[in-house]
Amino acid sequence: MTLPANVADFGWFSAGYAVFGAETNDHDFYPPLDDDEAQRHWLAGFSAAWVECPDDAAIESILNGDWLGGESVEEALVRILEGRMELLRQLWAHGLGKVARVTH
Q: Which pLDDT tens digit goes with each residue over 11-31?
């Protein structure tokens, strides 16, 4: 598993978390293509941030609704990875289509 110098201190999990939380577009914070281990760690961090930081629609749904509102993790990934279609395709291969659409 490879790590750019500015990601080495905290790892791919934290880089994925930072990409969702801060929506950074720094190339070094995205896992390399064809590195399954880095991608799995990054995706776990991204997903953890999605769970811990629900959007306003998800919060409203949790407090007053059916818990089905808000952006799904898949929608968030597509939004964040706009312009990085090959990475999105590779991440999808890790089983994104198999995860629950709502876990908030």
A: 999 999 999 988 788 999 999
